[in-house]
Amino acid sequence: MEVGNPMEEERSREEYHRDQEILEEQKDDISKGMNMLSSKKLAIRDSFDLEASRSFTTNQGLYPVDGWKTIMQLAFQSIGVVYGDLGTSPLYVLPGIFPTGIKHNDDILGVLSLIFYSLMLITLIKYVFIVLAANDNGDGGTFALYSLLCRHAKLSLASNQQAEDKEVSNYQLDVPNRRLKRASFVKSMLENNQTIKFFLLFMTMLGTSMVLGDGILTPCISVLSAMGGVKEAASGLTDNMIMWISVGILIALFQIQRFGTDKIGYSFAPILTIWFLSIGSVGLYNFFKYDPEVIKAINPMYIIQYFKRNKKDAWISLGGVILCLTEPIYWPMFVVAVMAAIIASQSLISASFSIIQQSLALGCFPRVKVVHTSSKYKGQVYVPEINTILMLACVGVTLGFKNTLKIGNAYGIAVAFVFTITSTFLVLVMVIIWKTNLYLIVIYALSIWLLELLFLSSVLYKFIDGGYLPLLFALVTMTIMYLWNYGYRKKYSYELDNKVSPVKLVEIASETSIHRIPGLALFYTELVQGISPIFTHYVANVPALHSVLVFISIKSLPISTVPLEDRFLFKRVEPRELSIFRCIVRYGYKDARTEWESFKEMLIIQLKYFIRKDVFMSRLPGTTNMASYESDDKEVSRLSTEEIAQMEVEKVDEALNVGDIVHLMGESEVVASKGSSFLKKLVINYAYNWLRRSVRQVDEIFMIPRKRLLKVGMTYDV
């Protein structure tokens, strides 16, 4: 029967509307099935059992739509998680302002004026009104800004980008208008310059490293500062005793992280609310009782006079603020201050977990375990390995420095670097994405950005007095991140250069020496543009393939979340009788990697839907693929579209009924090729491979059953 036969076309037309209705019904059934699967997982989940919360929901990335109730719940949580760091800063900044004492009474007004306008410019104008607008589907941070830029310009160094990625609903955003020559010019310059791409990745890693440094220094300086105040009322306590008490508090703080941000936020928020009310009340009391004229600090002229009087010393003290507490309410305030200081550390600890999760998704950090701790709100995560490292580092810093002065110097450098890096990315967002008026960009650069650079220069002056610490942390973290990213890119490039072509795959599967055995097999690979060379290595040693074979590629997109309906991207390998499929499973950097049972059910449901839709689309009149059903099997060509689809779906069911799914996974060893430099051999053969052996493997991340897992070894010469 030839393609285009009138009788066949007429029959296809008659079936068209009926098949379309069937597909829509199946799509509804799939949606209902996903909801039921999600509901079942949520119903059996123990909110205290962190492992159980590694499941998916159909509302991935979206908060429950409960109006003001949800908003108020999140706002209340944020008091205990986000604002603690800013709200407790008066505890530890005083020693860094006037290390040699106050030389002039107006210096206090000058410093207060500096504090006021710094908070207005950086905290309020920059972060509240500008940075929060530059969010990536609700997410912020260095990696979120980098991901946002990578979607609007080809800045990523990764080789796994596909045109289909832009079809994901959360991916497609407004692109620069070609009529705006400035945005187009900057975009083109960034895309065509490999050095700039490396520099932006370097800046992203540096910003990430500094946030992790904050996560170490903030708990140390907050707890030590609060505990140091007890000497005023209990002079019998020595510095060593205070130090060890602080260490005990820090260890306890990190031990409760496994309960998750949701529970910690609700527990801490009331305490921090009391702290804010307390310091506000004390401030008002001191204002009216001692010196109402302090309101004159709103006048910026006191800043100018402060710098005229103190010159270099004023520049050095730029990072300070002043603390004023009364003694009549010492002990109640001390207790609240200690508790608030402990809570203040939570913001940077939570930020460290989140930014590691983002780094993992973009291939910039070794694989570690990420536990999603909330069934209601996405993005609340806990990383056990990072939590342990932060705890040990905090204890080490506390024991090593023993006081807040040098830790404060180190903390200032970390914060100043994060400020300036954020502004750097923000300017690019203004130019490329927002297409902001050039004059406004210049005003931002000459005010806020310049102020941040001034802060950075001031804290760098204290490099020897503890300022080297965050740079040391950054050096170690960035080395690990770069080694992993470099090895990951080299490994991916090797697979891309040596991938199995579709023609070669068909030849292998069609060979008579290759036996097709009943069952369904999943072959995992990171390569998304083809079939991994490990497949040919597997067939050469095991000349057998299962009756249904699915090549699965796990891919992370530079977006926060991928909707469930866009998660699976299927493609059939022709000819159809081979029953070989390719599937790309796409995740955002906030998406939870679901446990195996959930993943399997989603995969099978989506595979069956794809088969039905693919058969329907191929049977449309005039479709070239229609010949694949008609040229070989006359009996099949007489069947309706629904019958053919059902036949192929039954083949999948038969493969599943044979037994459990078999998992095939590559276990590649990456080595530097002959003739490589000594440095490359050192990086690849030793550093990168040591990292790969030290971290979690892919089968551990997805909790694939070991009894049904077959790993295929192969050496990559990169």
UniProtKB/TrEMBL annotation:
<dbReference type="InterPro" id="IPR003855">
    <property type="entry name" value="K+_transporter"/>
</dbReference>
<comment type="similarity">
    <text>Belongs to the HAK/KUP transporter (TC 2.A.72.3) family.</text>
</comment>
<feature type="domain" description="K+ potassium transporter C-terminal">
    <location>
        <begin position="518"/>
        <end position="717"/>
    </location>
</feature>
<feature type="transmembrane region" description="Helical">
    <location>
        <begin position="441"/>
        <end position="461"/>
    </location>
</feature>
<keyword id="KW-0633">Potassium transport</keyword>
<feature type="region of interest" description="Disordered">
    <location>
        <begin position="1"/>
        <end position="25"/>
    </location>
</feature>
<keyword id="KW-1133">Transmembrane helix</keyword>
<feature type="transmembrane region" description="Helical">
    <location>
        <begin position="268"/>
        <end position="288"/>
    </location>
</feature>
<keyword id="KW-0630">Potassium</keyword>
<feature type="transmembrane region" description="Helical">
    <location>
        <begin position="337"/>
        <end position="360"/>
    </location>
</feature>
<keyword id="KW-0406">Ion transport</keyword>
<protein>
    <recommendedName>
        <fullName>Potassium transporter</fullName>
    </recommendedName>
</protein>
<dbReference type="InterPro" id="IPR053951">
    <property type="entry name" value="K_trans_N"/>
</dbReference>
<keyword id="KW-0813">Transport</keyword>
<feature type="transmembrane region" description="Helical">
    <location>
        <begin position="198"/>
        <end position="224"/>
    </location>
</feature>
<dbReference type="GO" id="GO:0005886">
    <property type="term" value="C:plasma membrane"/>
</dbReference>
<feature type="transmembrane region" description="Helical">
    <location>
        <begin position="467"/>
        <end position="484"/>
    </location>
</feature>
<dbReference type="InterPro" id="IPR053952">
    <property type="entry name" value="K_trans_C"/>
</dbReference>
<feature type="transmembrane region" description="Helical">
    <location>
        <begin position="108"/>
        <end position="134"/>
    </location>
</feature>
<dbReference type="Pfam" id="PF02705">
    <property type="entry name" value="K_trans"/>
</dbReference>
<dbReference type="GO" id="GO:0015079">
    <property type="term" value="F:potassium ion transmembrane transporter activity"/>
</dbReference>
<dbReference type="Pfam" id="PF22776">
    <property type="entry name" value="K_trans_C"/>
</dbReference>
<feature type="transmembrane region" description="Helical">
    <location>
        <begin position="381"/>
        <end position="401"/>
    </location>
</feature>
<feature type="domain" description="K+ potassium transporter integral membrane">
    <location>
        <begin position="327"/>
        <end position="503"/>
    </location>
</feature>
<feature type="domain" description="K+ potassium transporter integral membrane">
    <location>
        <begin position="74"/>
        <end position="326"/>
    </location>
</feature>
<keyword id="KW-0812">Transmembrane</keyword>
<feature type="transmembrane region" description="Helical">
    <location>
        <begin position="236"/>
        <end position="256"/>
    </location>
</feature>
<feature type="transmembrane region" description="Helical">
    <location>
        <begin position="413"/>
        <end position="434"/>
    </location>
</feature>
<feature type="compositionally biased region" description="Basic and acidic residues">
    <location>
        <begin position="8"/>
        <end position="25"/>
    </location>
</feature>
<keyword id="KW-0472">Membrane</keyword>
